[in-house]
Amino acid sequence: MASYLVTGAAGFIGARVAETLLAEGHSVVGVDNLNDAYDVRLKQWRLAQLQARPNFRFYKLDICRRAELAETVFGRHKFAAVINLAARAGVRYSVEDPWAYYETNVTGTLNLLELCRSHGIAKFVLSSSSSVYGQGNPLPYREDQPTDQPLSPYAASKKAAETLCYTYHHLHGLDVSILRFFTVYGPAGRPDMLPFRLVQWICEGRPVVIYGDGRQSRDFTYVDDIARGTIAAIRPLGYEVMNLGADRPVPLMAAIRLVEALVGRPAQVVFEAAQPSDVQHTWANITLAGKLLDWAPQVSLDEGMGRLVEWYCANREWAREVATC
User: Residue 88's domain spans which residues?
Assistant: First the structure.
């Protein structure tokens, strides 16, 4: 079995990828700086699940600290691949603090690419985002569509990271898989994203704030499906950019009605002005991932949201206190 570096290992997607690799018998070195971009209790909960497993080693470390990363992680371990899931995520917050997003998402990626080059690591997997497609592309989004008009610093930083990956592939022969994720949700998910917010707000009888008219749609993708696709992308591919999404866009009001049914209480919906950094719709064309990775989503929105509601209820004592704004 192989050894993998997973950055962002206490993050929502990173933790699930690490858990899946461990379940398959691999060893995982996890790196995460455990920053307070959102409630650290969520990161600590995910990390506790991983630390209970054998063959997992964790370093509290920022990928922006290249020298420390080189000495502490790359100097002590050999990896079959690096899976970079460490990122500053979230569209709206990136407008307030674009520097933090650029540092982690661009400089951090550059540090990892350079360490792969200098240590002879042949495979690099990068998490990117549907946000890179901006507003003007026809739906569903295809990987060959233009991505040169991002609407937020977050999207711009992800596009910059993708470009760096191509440079290292071209100059140094690094095998790179770039995965554009579409609205990932599930148990212990990010509290700045709509699925977690809906469950908390409706369960606790709080106002459900919708920016816009509620007719905007998202291609909600369950975290286990994303983890499977990420691991499938470790295979040699040369250089490929692939969408990982559900291929089933859902209007926000329909998602609210689903959570109402699962929770058993009505939502108090409050509409506010649309945000200029938000796209109106996302929808993934996943033909390429099916062809190259033999991948397709398996978990329906009904089932996945049901699992999120179940997790929330089991952890409600502290999950109700997690800030979502």
Answer: 3-319
